[in-house]
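pls read this protein:
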Amino acid sequence: MPKLCCFVCLITILFQLTNLASSKRQQVPTPPLPLSPLPSFSQLKWQQRELIMFLHFGVNTFTDSEWGTGNENPEIFNPLGLDANQWVNTAAEAGVSLMILTAKHHDGFCLWPSKFTEHSVAHSPWKHGRGDVVQELVNAAKARGVDVGLYLSPWDRHDPRYGHDLQYNEYYLAQLQELLTRYGDVREIWFDGAKGSNAPNMSYYFTDWFAMVKELQSSINIFSDAGPDVRWVGNEKGFAGSTCWSTINRTSLSIGNGSIVDYLSTGDAKGTDWLPAECDVSIRKGWFWHKSETPKKLSELLEIYYNSVGRNCVMLLNVPPNTTGLISETDVQRLREFGTAIDTIFSKNLAENCFVKASSQRAGKGGGFGPENVLDDDHLRTYWAPRDGDGKSDDHWIEIRAADEGLRFNVIRIQEAIGLGQRIKRHEIFVDGKLVAEGTTVGHKKLHRLENGVIDGHVVRIKIKESRAVPLISSIGLHFDPYWHPNRQSLT
């Protein structure tokens, strides 16, 4: 009987300890609920790239044209010095992690030896018809750890099947399968609705195309005016709207519809789909290489960066190889300057050793959601979260306080924890009590380049004036941009 009593006591004690441990586990603060719609893993990785590269290359390079006629003889394609390693090295040194090649442009000429057409590199003198530009890029990119994307123009001015819905869609799908099964992982595929006013009527089977793409490569991002993974920003200047939501209603979008460009630029706070914007722009005036053109000034490229990456988008910068098959040295040099400038501006966060306080924090001090999270190196998974239901949205604020010597900066960076949804609708920034900047959306990254130039201050306060749900700020940065001179002519 005593043994039975001891056994019962032991069971009772173990049960109490289990309940105690369970109770303690339940007291660990939990993250706030996500706010739908949410990005996929592939969309998050894409957003974090920030700067990617387009390569417009083909027969147009040799005819000094932007839109080929489709009647070009493959014999003109002969880039004797083509070096994809030079392309990739140039991109990697500028901080680019994804390069998208025009595998086929509107002229229909294919940069890989497609078995479904004779209008390709296989019938050019380059490498005696045994060359493959797509494969050369893939090999060079793999060696440098850079990812590859492809553009396959829906409009085809060469192929006689164009204008015959069934035959051409079968042809297009066949070429999609070639590209997505021969060359390993493709991280982004580009579709657009561009075509001339005199082009034959043609119905593209986009639904079938997209389904085939996802079947062959499930982690790929599909770009088009209507997504489904990445949307066009609505212009080719590289600028997003000052308000730019990653959310939008896909049911309101259609590919090639010029009436929706403003909606594409701003997105929709009430959107039901996560479809972030990509800002495409060329380093030169044209998309293909032309001997008469020169690259944009550094100041222009930085302006585009602030209005694309700094407005919750990814910047897609086109850098066209020349007739030799190389990126021209003037473009290489400008890209090097651009990459150096971005690194110079943003590699140092002047706020990193400052004291941070906030209006409130979820679960109190030590709960894991404190304002100190905005100064760590994780710009996605750690964040400051105020208490739920803590007054109105405009009561939420976070403050950075400098030491006695103060801070000198002209750029303020704010980032949301977009893995839990995009939330902030309106915000204001004060330095030592004076309003210095205000804006609407934040998203992955909002960059305020201060209109009045450099500021010396001690206390920077960011007030969230309006938000779709409790705001979650993952990172804040104060930076100095030595290239920004708002009161004098821009530097070259």
DSSP finds ten helices and 20 strands in the chain. The CA atoms of residues 227 and 348 lie 35 Å apart. The two ends are 94 Å apart (CA to CA).
